[in-house]
Design brief:
- The chain has one domain: 2,3-Dihydroxybiphenyl 1,2-Dioxygenase, domain 1 (Roll).
- The chain is built from 2 helices and 9 strands.
- It has 117 residues and is mainly β.
- Keywords: Antibiotic resistance.
Length: 117
């Protein structure tokens, strides 16, 4: 049986260059696709996300969500504290994670969590 090795969610954005700059400010490395389509790649450690520019993207009706497991949610929250968008405070959950939420200007919800220590 074949093994699944990784996943890269594809996130719609209204402005690819602005989104790539935002992810760079969040500590990701970024690059644009060299083809004719406005498409980009963002990576940080073992996490990869793909971005696709979608002219009809409306954050109120086409929201996306990703869950990012990290080693230290509080440290990432501190790093992201100046990011454009909405950032909730970290909290301990009943399911054993310390987590917070970040909603970017394109409406993508990034839930970020690490195991409680």
């Amino acid at each position: 049986m074949a093994a699944f090795e990784s996943v890269a969610p594809i996130i719609p954005v209204s402005d690819l260059e602005a989104a790539l700059a935002r992810y760079r400010s969040l500590g990701f490395t970024t690059r644009s696709y060299d083809g004719s389509e406005p498409y980009g790649f963002v990576d940080r450690d073992n996490v990869s996300l793909h971005l696709t520019e979608s002219p009809g993207h409306d954050p109120l009706t086409t929201a996306s969500m990703v869950y990012l497991y990290v080693s230290d949610a509080d440290a990432v929250h501190t790093e992201w504290s100046g990011a454009e968008g909405r950032l909730s405070p970290p909290r301990d959950t009943p399911w054993g994670l310390r987590e917070f939420a970040y909603v970017d200007p394109d409406g993508t919800l990034h839930r970020v969590g690490s195991p409680l220590r």
